[in-house]
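yo

u said u wanted the structure for the complex thing, so here. seqs first:
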Amino acid sequence: MKFTYFPGCSLKGSGRAYEESLFVVCKQLGVELEELDDWNCCGATAYMAVSERQAFGLAARNLALAEQKPHELIAPCSACYMVLKKTQKYVAEYPKIGQEVHEALKRGGLNYAGTAKIRHPLDVLVNDIGLDAIKKQVKNPLKGFKVAPYYGCQIVRPYADFDDQHDPVLMDKLFKALGAEVVKYPLKTRCCGGSLTGTLPEAGLGLSFHILREAQRRGANVLATVCPLCQFNLDAYQRDMSNKFEPVHMPIVYFTQLMGLAFGLDAKTLGLQRGIISIEPLLKKQEVVA
Amino acid sequence: MTTIRQTIKYDAERDRNFPKEIMSRHGCEKLYGCIQCGTCSATCPVSSYMDHTPRQLMALTRAGFKKEVLSSLTIWLCASCYACTVDCPKEIKITDIMYALKRHAIEEGVYPKRFPIPILAREFFKMVKNRGRVTENELAVRMFLQSNWFAMVSTWRLGLNLMRTGRFSMKPESMDRPEKLASLFQGGPR
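structre next:
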């Protein structure tokens, strides 16, 4: 099975552990990823605040490039995933946006037909590859892992069609299949603060803090995410949150990193050393349990 | 010193074109369907930090309180999590309305000066235009320099942590040929 891979800026920057773990886990499961040639930034949440026309054009260029390949497009970052999905929908539903986007792309020698299929790796791995195939790869069940499955906002809202918008369950099922315990986590789709944590910590830090405190209260010892910005906010600012509110301490991992650990892959090839809050103590504890 | 401000408006002071302008933007068509139920304010994770809740902002926009709306911090605090858009019983795309208001505020230059969020949006825009991709740490530095360079000093530990864990980009990220994007930028931001 082969997919075209749209990394987005974060997976080449602060979220590179997501890319690293996604690639080795996909390889293990026989999924091939080919990076989209000379892709551009999806526009994230910031570009739309300045220019709507250009924001849709930028995202649509990636879709036009993806359509040149016979494979579906995989976008791991929640913001990229949401923006690409939204662009596809708005270009199709609003004639004026469609016309402007098509004209701009045409001037650049591209054609966008609207047929690109945009997928999230969580959807692909759990629904296409399937939990049975995943279970077959588990060599090192995640005993002692109590995971808070944190989906964040833009993967399920408002356009995702592969899981429930208010109570998504794909990660819950996945981690159980990997041998981990999944804690009941009602904040699973609450916003982490997005870029606010960096721009306006007075507001953003509080949002991230509530996510972590709730995970802690529910007895989780690790929080898993599908989004590079969620990972960054929840991982990199724990010291600031602890100083401002009350102590929080929890390693924050990508769902692909947990898959890789269960597959018995080396922690370093999964980028686990890139966590600012170290996962080492949990790994040591797991060895004792196993 | 106590400043006395007019807190109630005369009908003639309303800008009746403003709601029409906003409603002409994509995704904002259903503004007049708002029943002021407050679901958006309740579901919004940031409303406790806003000067006007999303429900109030919908009412102010619809009533033509242009200046109050465009200078409100609310539009910049919206983190685009789409909770309100999904939960609105009248299917109003509140997130899209927030985006339309942000663009309107930038076009009219009425956003708060040295306020980091619109600065980030503008710098993000410039960076993507020039290189096609974003270098996160460089973007953060540019934002801090134009808003509050002192705040950057307090993030030294974060910078070190990112370097220690190999998550800091030492060289700018760029497309091989960013000039390929030129056709998308013709005709200006609007």
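Chain A is about 45% helix and 10% strand. The CA atoms of residues 101 and 107 of chain A lie 10 Å apart.
cya
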